[in-house]
Amino acid sequence: MQHFRGKKAAFLKAFRQSPAIAPAADKIGVNRCTIYRWMEADHAFAEAVEDARQAAIDDLEAIHFEKARDRDTLARIHILRSRRGNIYGDRSKGAVECQPWQPEPLSPEQMKNALRVAMDSMRNCNLPAKSAQEADAEIVTDTDTPR
Questions:
Q1: 0.70 exceeded by the pTM?
Q2: How far apart, in whole angstroms, are the C-alpha atoms of residue 119 and residue 141?
């Protein structure tokens, strides 16, 4: 493993403590774009960044295991679901296949009845409505016209 000096070494130390590029870059006084350029130009540095990321995740995992040992129920559930998902995982995922609801098409007669009910409701609400003959004429025209 290569040892880095100066800003790169400082970045790796900051990144190991908190594995997010921008905050670690801010901590050492460089822009995050600089870090990405360093990673692109220096393969060994890019590997060191990934190693630091994995080490930080290992640390978090160790803390999580300690919490589980200290009777933290949520930590226990999370560990069991993530490590043994086939046994402790969420069984509802994918178990039920639901199709989106699609209304059944109405026959012309059903459409006429539905429109009559709607027109009656509008009359009861004191809304302007067409006469039954006008509505019937429109219904016949709308249902007889191909779309």
A1: no
A2: 17
